[in-house]
TrEMBL record, chain A:
Record SUPFAM superfamilies: Protein prenylyltransferase
Keyword field: Prenyltransferase, Repeat, Transferase
Pfam families: PPTA
InterPro entries found in the cross-reference section: Prenyl_trans_a
Family: Belongs to the protein prenyltransferase subunit alpha family.
Record bears the keyword Protein transport: no
Protein name as catalogued: Uncharacterized protein
Presence of keyword Metal-binding: no
Any single GO CC term annotated in Swiss-Prot or TrEMBL for this entry: cytoplasm
Automatic annotation (TrEMBL), chain B:
Transmembrane segments: none
Prenyltransferase alpha-alpha toroid domain segment(s): 19-316
One Pfam family this sequence matches: Prenyltrans
Biological classification of the source: Eukaryota, Metazoa, Ecdysozoa, Arthropoda, Hexapoda
Protein name: Geranylgeranyl transferase type-2 subunit beta
Cofactor binding note: Binds 1 zinc ion per subunit.
Assembly description: Heterotrimer composed of RABGGTA, RABGGTB and CHM; within this trimer, RABGGTA and RABGGTB form the catalytic component B, while CHM (component A) mediates peptide substrate binding. The Rab GGTase dimer (RGGT) interacts with CHM (component A) prior to Rab protein binding; the association is stabilized by geranylgeranyl pyrophosphate (GGpp). The CHM:RGGT:Rab complex is destabilized by GGpp. Interaction of RABGGTB with prenylated PTP4A2 precludes its association with RABGGTA and inhibits enzyme activity. Interacts with CHODL.
GO molecular function: metal ion binding; Rab geranylgeranyltransferase activity
Family note: Belongs to the protein prenyltransferase subunit beta family.
SUPFAM superfamilies to which the protein is assigned, alphabetical: Terpenoid cyclases/Protein prenyltransferases
EC top class, as a word: transferase
Automatic annotation (TrEMBL), chain C:
Domain Longin: 9-128
Cell location: Cytoplasm, Cytosol; Cytoplasmic vesicle membrane; Golgi apparatus membrane
Alphabetized Gene3D superfamilies for the sequence: 1.20.5.110, Longin domain
Topology of the protein relative to the lipid bilayer: Lipid-anchor
Signal peptide range: none
GO biological process per UniProt: endoplasmic reticulum to Golgi vesicle-mediated transport; protein transport
Classification of source organism: Eukaryota, Metazoa, Ecdysozoa, Arthropoda, Hexapoda
GO molecular-function terms, A-Z: SNAP receptor activity; transferase activity
Keywords per UniProt: Coiled coil, Cytoplasm, Cytoplasmic vesicle, ER-Golgi transport, Golgi apparatus, Lipoprotein, Membrane, Methylation, Palmitate, Prenylation, Protein transport, Transferase, Transport
CC annotations in GO: cytoplasmic vesicle membrane; cytosol; Golgi membrane
This protein's name: Uncharacterized protein
Function: Vesicular soluble NSF attachment protein receptor (v-SNARE) mediating vesicle docking and fusion to a specific acceptor cellular compartment. Functions in endoplasmic reticulum to Golgi transport; as part of a SNARE complex composed of GOSR1, GOSR2 and STX5. Functions in early/recycling endosome to TGN transport; as part of a SNARE complex composed of BET1L, GOSR1 and STX5. Has a S-palmitoyl transferase activity.
Stored PROSITE patterns: LONGIN (PS50859), V_SNARE (PS50892)
Keyword Membrane listed: yes
C-alpha cells in the first residue's frame, strides 16, 4: 500500500480519532485486538462490535508510527507536553498497539499526577491493553502504581483477581499475571479461601501451567504464615488418608492424627491456633498430593504433577520436623538446619521415607536432597 | 505410562554447523531498514538491541562491521543530564536496563569516559530502596533484574561503593525459593532468567557461598528437554535464550557438565535461520537480534572454536573484563 | 489446556466428506478471530475425514491442537478438535459414543443426502459442553476399556495426512469454504515470531 505522506497523516489522524471515539462512546469496551487483513480496504479499519474493538492490521504500522512520532515530538520539544491532555488519544493508540513502551506509560503517570486523567478510566484502559496482550508487564505495573490513588473503600480486590485470571487463561505460565496476583493476595488475605478453590479449578483446565501450582503453594504458605484455619473444620480426611497410605496401623480420630504426626508434642504447652493451622495446612497439602495422583492417572505423567506433589510432600515433612523438634514454627529455618532431626523417633516419617524411597532412583535422590532423608544407613 | 513433555522436534534438515558469515551479515544489516515496523516497535529497547549486536559481533571478532562513532554519539544523546541514567533511545525515559546496556557497550568500545560516569553512579544509587532492592526507574517497579543491573553497572564503572551492598545481598537472598531457584520478588516463582540475574549478582558481589548449589543445579538441569534445548521454567517450550541463562548460571556454579552439551549444541544450531542468518527462539521461528546474541553466547560457553570466550556473569567478551581488571567469582568443583 | 473446540459428524461419501452436524465452543478465542477459527476447524475436519480410511481412527496434531477422527466401517465419521492436552483415550471414546447416538437417532438412509439443516440431531452442543471436563468420561469406562489405543494412527501435522502432491497452503488458497478474512488469518498465523525478550 502506497499512500503519500500527507494523505497518510490525515488518514492516521482520522483512524486515531475513530478509535478514541469508540473508547469515549462505549465505556464497556471489553477487548481490543488487531485483525489480520491482507490489504487496504475502502472502509474504516476501526471495527466495533458488541463492545469489542478491532483495528485492521494493514493500518497498525501507520497508526503506531504516527502516534509515536507525535508523542515524542511533543515530549522532545519540551512544550510542557505534560499539561496537554490532547496527547492522550495518541497515547491510547500507541499503547494499544505496542503495550511495552515504558515511557508512554510514564507520560500517563505524569498526567494522572497532574489530575489530567481519571483513575477509573486508567484502570479500564490498562485492563483493555491486557486483553490485547495478556503478558503486558507494563500494564500490570501501571495498575499497581494506580492503586494508592484510590480510596481504600473503593478497592475491590476480586476485580483485580479476575483480570489476573483472564490473562493467565489466555497465555500459558504467564509470569506477570501470577506475580501480580501474588501482589493482590498480599493485600487481600480475605481472598485466601476463595483462591484455594479458584486455583484448583484453574489447574483442572490448565494442567501444565506450573505458575498456577506455584501460586497455590504460595497460597498454602501464606495461610500457614498468618496462622489461618477454618474454625468449622473438625475433620482432616485428606490428611488421614495420606497417613493411612503409609502406615499399617491406620488412624481415624484427630487425636490419632496429631499423635502420629507429632508424637513428642506436649499438647498443654502448644498453642491451639498453631496446632489447628498446622492440621488445616497439612490437610490441604495432603489433598493436593491426592489431586496430583488423580491428575497423573487421567493425563499421564507430567512435570507439573510431580513438582507439585513434591512441594506438597515437602510442606508436610518439613512442618512435622519443625513442630517435632520444637522449633518455633514461625521462624522458618531452612531444612538444612533440621538435618540433625532424628526422625527414627517418628514412625510415620520413617514409613514415609521408606515408601517414597521406593519410587525410583531420581525421586529417592530428590528426597535425600530436599527432605534430608538419609538412605545410606538402611537402603531397602 | 509415557512422560509427556512440551518440546520441539528437530528435523534432519536443520543446520548443524555455525552459519558464521550469515550471522555477521544479519547483525551488521540489522536496523538498516528504519521503516521496518519491527524496528519501530522495538525502539523502546534500542540500547539493549545495540548491546546485543555489538557483543555478538565482538564475540565473532567482527566488531568493525558496526560504526563505533555513531553508536557512541547515540549513547551520549541518551544519557539524561539530570538523573544521570541512560534511556533506550532519545526521547525515552532513563532506565536501569538501558543504563547497563549503554555501559556494557562503552566498555567493549573502551570509552567509558564518553559519558558522565559519576552521573551513572548517582542514578543507580538513587534507585536503591531501604530493603536493599532496586527500582528499575523512578516509578517504582522492583525486580531482581534491577539488582543485577545495579551491581553490574557499578562494577563496570568501578563504583560499587556508592550503594549498600550487604542490604542488596539480603534482598536478593530473600527471593530464593525452597526449590533453590530465584524469582523476581520474594516468593515469586523460580525462573531461569531471574536465577541468572541472582547468581550473576552473587558472583559480582563475591557471595556465591550463599547459594544452595545442589538444589539450584538440580532445578537448572531439569530445564533440559529431550530435544536438547533448555526451557526457563517447568513445562515451557525450549528457547535459545534460556540456553544462555541456564548455561551461564551453571558455568558460574562450576556445573556446566551437569547437562548434555552435545544435545544442547544440536538444539541451538537448529535455531539458525539459513536464509537471513540470526537465531530464533526455537526451531522454525523467525530470528531476532536478542536470540542471536544468546545463541552465540551459549555456544561460546560450550567452547565453540570460532567464537571468543564469553564471561558468564556479564555476557561480554572475557578480554574486555580482563582489560578492566574485573574478576568475577566462579565456583570451581 | 484441557479444552474441546469442535465436534462434527460427517458421512464419508465416495468423492467427498459430507457434513451432517457440527458444534463449536470458541469462547476462548478472541472475538474477531472466532469466525475464521470456526471456518478453519470445519475445513480441517473435512480434510482429515476425507483422508481417513473406513474403520480406522487417527489423531492429528497441528500446533497446540489435536484433531481426533473416527470413521466407522459404514462411513459415518466423527471429528473432535481439542487442545493437545485433552486425553486422547477420552476423545476417542466420546467419538464412539456420539456416533452410536447419532446412528440411533438418524436413519442411515439420510446420511448420504443429509445436510446440517435437514438432519435432526441436536445433542452435539451438549456433548461438547459436558466433556470439557474429561472426568465426565468415567461414565464411559466400559467403552474406554474396549478402545484399543494402539490402533489409533498418530500424525504430527495435517501435512502428514495429505496425499502425495497435496499442499496445505494450496488447499487453503483454493478452498471455497474459507473466506478472504480466514485466509488472511492463516497467512498471518504462519509468520511465527518470538515474543520473548528480557525486558
Amino acid at each position: 500500500m502506497e499512500i503519500a505522506d500527507i494523505e497518510n497523516d490525515v488518514l492516521c489522524e482520522k483512524i486515531i480519532n475513530d478509535i478514541n471515539a469508540v473508547l469515549t462512546r462505549d465505556p464497556d469496551v471489553t477487548s481490543f485486538e488487531i485483525i489480520p487483513t491482507l490489504s487496504y480496504q475502502n472502509k474504516s479499519p476501526v471495527i466495533h462490535v458488541e463492545h469489542n474493538l478491532g483495528l485492521e492490521s494493514w493500518c497498525a504500522k501507520h497508526v503506531y508510527d504516527f502516534s509515536h512520532k507525535t508523542i515524542l515530538a511533543s515530549k522532545l520539544s519540551g512544550s510542557k507536553y505534560i499539561y496537554n491532555d490532547s496527547l492522550v488519544k495518541y497515547l491510547n493508540c500507541a499503547l494499544l498497539i505496542n503495550p511495552d513502551v515504558t515511557t508512554f506509560w510514564h507520560i500517563r503517570r505524569q498526567l494522572v499526577e497532574k489530575n489530567k486523567l481519571k483513575i477509573q478510566k486508567e484502570f479500564q484502559f490498562a485492563a483493555l491493553v491486557l486483553t490485547k496482550k495478556p503478558k503486558a508487564s507494563e500494564a500490570f505495573a501501571y495498575r499497581r502504581w494506580l492503586y494508592p490513588f484510590q480510596s481504600a473503600e473503593s478497592i475491590d480486590w476480586s476485580i483485580e483477581i479476575g483480570i489476573c485470571d483472564r490473562c493467565a487463561d489466555k497465555s500459558l505460565s504467564n509470569y506477570h499475571a501470577w506475580s501480580h496476583r501474588q501482589w493482590v493476595l498480599e493485600r487481600a488475605s480475605h481472598l485466601l479461601r476463595s483462591e484455594i478453590l479458584h486455583t484448583e479449578k484453574f489447574i483442572k483446565k490448565h494442567i501444565s501451567d506450573y505458575s498456577c501450582y506455584h501460586y497455590r503453594q504460595f497460597v498454602l504458605q501464606t495461610i500457614f504464615d498468618i496462622c489461618y484455619y477454618d474454625k468449622e473444620q473438625n475433620e482432616y480426611n485428606s490428611l488421614r488418608d495420606f497417613i493411612n497410605f503409609y502406615l499399617v496401623d491406620g488412624v481415624s480420630s484427630v487425636g490419632e492424627i496429631i499423635q502420629t504426626l507429632l508424637p513428642n508434642i506436649d499438647l498443654n504447652a502448644t498453642n491451639e491456633d498453631k496446632l489447628k493451622c498446622f492440621l488445616y495446612c497439612c490437610n490441604f497439602a495432603a489433598y493436593d498430593i491426592k489431586f496430583c495422583d488423580d491428575l497423573k492417572n487421567l493425563f499421564g505423567f507430567r512435570e507439573s504433577f510431580e513438582n507439585h506433589r513434591r512441594a506438597s510432600l515437602r510442606f508436610i515433612v518439613e512442618n512435622c520436623m519443625r513442630f517435632n523438634s520444637s522449633v518455633e514454627c514461625y521462624q522458618q529455618p531452612p531444612v538444612s538446619k533440621l538435618s540433625k532431626f532424628d526422625y527414627s523417633s517418628n514412625a510415620f516419617l520413617m514409613a514415609l521415607k521408606k515408601s517414597e524411597g521406593m519410587l525410583g532412583e531420581q525421586h529417592r535422590k530428590w528426597c535425600s536432597l530436599f527432605l534430608n532423608f538419609d538412605y545410606s544407613d538402611n537402603s531397602d | 505410562m509415557a512422560f509427556i513433555v512440551n518440546d520441539v522436534d528437530i528435523s534432519a534438515a536443520e543446520p548443524k554447523e555455525l552459519l558464521f558469515d550469515k550471522h555477521v551479515e544479519y547483525i551488521a544489516n540489522h536496523g538498516n531498514d528504519q521503516n521496518d515496523f519491527e524496528y519501530c516497535m522495538t525502539e523502546f529497547l534500542r540500547m539493549s538491541g545495540i548491546y546485543w549486536g555489538v557483543t555478538a559481533l565482538d564475540l565473532m571478532q567482527q566488531l568493525e562491521k558496526l560504526d563505533r562513532k555513531s553508536i557512541v554519539e547515540f549513547i551520549k544523546k541518551c544519557q539524561c543530564p539530570t538523573s544521570g541514567g541512560v534511556a533506550a533511545c532519545e526521547g525515552h525515559d532513563p532506565h536501569m536496563l538501558y543504563t547497563l546496556s549503554a555501559v556494557q557497550i562503552l566498555c567493549i568500545y573502551d570509552c567509558l569516559d564518553q559519558i558522565d560516569v559519576a552521573g551513572v553512579a548517582r542514578y543507580v544509587a538513587s534507585l536503591q530502596q531501604p530493603d536493599g532492592s532496586f527500582f528499575g526507574d523512578k516509578w517504582g517497579e522492583v525486580d531482581t533484574r534491577f539488582s543485577f543491573c545495579a551491581v553490574a553497572i557499578l562494577t563496570l564503572i568501578n563504583k560499587l561503593d556508592v550503594i549498600n551492598v550487604p542490604k542488596a545481598v539480603e534482598f536478593v537472598m530473600s527471593c530464593c525459593n525452597a526449590d533453590g531457584g530465584f524469582g523476581s520478588k520474594p516468593n515469586a516463582e523460580s525462573h531461569a532468567g531471574l536465577i541468572y540475574c541472582c547468581v550473576g549478582f552473587l558472583s559480582i558481589t563475591n557471595q556465591l557461598h550463599r547459594l544452595d548449589c545442589e538444589k539450584l543445579a538440580w532445578w537448572l538441569c531439569e530445564r533440559q528437554l529431550p530435544s536438547g534445548g533448555l526451557n526457563g521454567r517447568p513445562e515451557k517450550l525450549p528457547d535459545v535464550c534460556y540456553s544462555w541463562w541456564v548455561l551461564a548460571s551453571l558455568t558460574i556454579m562450576g556445573r556446566l557438565h551437569w547437562i548434555s552439551s552435545d544435545k544442547l549444541k544440536v538444539f541451538i544450531l537448529s535455531c539458525q535461520d539459513t536464509d537471513t542468518g540470526g537465531f530464533s527462539d526455537r526451531t522454525g521461528n523467525l530470528p531476532d537480534i536478542f536470540h542471536t546474541l544468546f545463541g552465540l553466547g551459549a555456544l561460546s560457553l560450550l567452547g565453540h572454536d570460532k567464537l571468543l570466550k564469553v564471561n558468564p556473569t556479564f555476557c561480554m567478551p572475557q578480554y574486555v573484563l580482563d582489560k578492566l581488571k574485573i574478576n568475577t567469582q566462579i565456583i570451581s568443583v | 489446556m484441557v479444552k474441546l473446540y469442535a465436534l462434527c459428524v460427517f458421512f464419508k461419501g465416495p468423492s467427498e466428506g459430507r457434513l451432517l452436524k457440527a458444534a463449536y465452543d470458541l469462547q476462548s478465542f478472541s472475538f474477531f478471530q472466532r469466525g475464521a477459527v470456526q471456518e478453519f476447524m470445519g475445513f480441517a475436519s473435512k480434510t482429515i475425514v476425507e483422508r481417513t480410511q473406513a474403520a480406522s481412527r487417527q489423531s492429528v496434531k497441528q500446533d497446540a491442537y489435536m484433531c481426533h477422527v473416527y470413521v466407522r466401517a459404514d462411513n459415518l465419521g466423527g471429528v473432535l478438535i481439542g487442545d493437545h492436552e485433552y486425553p486422547q483415550r477420552v476423545a476417542h471414546t466420546l467419538l464412539t459414543k456420539v456416533l452410536d447416538d447419532f446412528t440411533a437417532k438418524v436413519p442411515a438412509d439420510q446420511w448420504s443426502t443429509g445436510t446440517e439443516s435437514s438432519i435432526a440431531f441436536t445433542q452435539l452442543p451438549a456433548y461438547l459442553s459436558k466433556y470439557q471436563d474429561p472426568r465426565e468420561a468415567d461414565a464411559l469406562t466400559k467403552m474406554q476399556n474396549d478402545l484399543d489405543e494402539t490402533k489409533i494412527i498418530l500424525k504430527n501435522t495435517i501435512e502428514a495426512v495429505l496425499e502425495r502432491g497435496e499442499k496445505l497452503d494450496d488447499m487453503v488458497i483454493k478452498s471455497e469454504n474459507l473466506s478472504i478474512q480466514s485466509k488472511a488469518f492463516y497467512k498471518t498465523a504462519k509468520k511465527t515470531n518470538s515474543c520473548c525478550s528480557f525486558s
